[in-house]
Design brief:
This protein has 5 helices and 8 strands. The protein has 206 residues and is an alpha+beta fold.
């Protein structure tokens, strides 16, 4: 659930759902009251992605009955649905309204967007932790490409404005193996690049 930046939506989220909220607990409360005010129950919704803690499968249509209690939504927004002959709580981001009030649909899209952005940040933080020099390279020097193209045979490459910096093998057993190879290659490149820059600076001072 990764999303592109939407400035209009971000402004609405900032001004209406998490306004004056400091910390995750206050943000959760802000979201709870914002969504509770916007959602009109009951409504039908379709499951758009599965989750290991949820009984829903992608494509299933359910009736959403109400929000779960405030205490149950401190780590995410939970709604109560009719599931067969019982009611269960599921994550709101799993559901997409089929039809309903436009303001309700937009509010739920706001939540989807917020969750997507949080996942994106977590993924970047994980990449930064696991592949530090890749993170350093793409933020300071250039970019990486993964997959085959019409110009070369390598599965993974690193480039800067001057062209190809490093390229890997044609085949890997996994993407993780390719990323590890890239990390090692960029570690050597950064070390060499920083060394040569240091030498140039030394000559300039003479």
């Amino acid at each position: 659930m990764m999303t592109d930046h939407d400035q209009k939506r971000e402004r609405r989220i900032r001004d209406e759902s998490i306004v004056d909220a400091y910390g995750s607990e206050e943000q959760a409360l802000g979201w709870y009251y914002y969504l509770e005010a916007c959602m009109i129950f009951h409504f039908k919704a379709r499951c758009i992605y599965s989750h290991m803690t949820s009984p829903l499968k992608v494509g299933e249509v359910v009736k959403v009955l109400e929000m779960a209690g405030e205490d149950d939504c401190t780590n995410g927004m939970i709604v109560i649905i009719q599931f067969g002959n019982r009611t269960v709580g599921v994550r709101l981001e799993q559901l997409e309204p089929i039809i309903g009030d436009l303001s309700m649909i937009e509010a739920i899209k706001d939540w989807h967007y917020w969750v997507g952005q949080r996942i994106h940040i977590l993924m970047l933080n994980d990449l930064a932790h696991r592949y530090g020099n890749i993170n350093r390279f793409v933020f300071k020097y250039g970019w990486i490409e993964v997959g085959f193209d019409e110009y070369g045979q390598s599965f993974i490459r690193a480039l800067d404005p001057g062209g190809l910096v490093w390229e890997g093998k044609q085949f890997y057993d996994s993407v993780d193996e390719a990323m590890t190879d890239l990390k090692q290659g960029l570690s050597a490149w950064i070390k060499e690049f920083m060394g040569s820059r240091s030498e140039r600076q030394k000559h300039c001072r003479i």
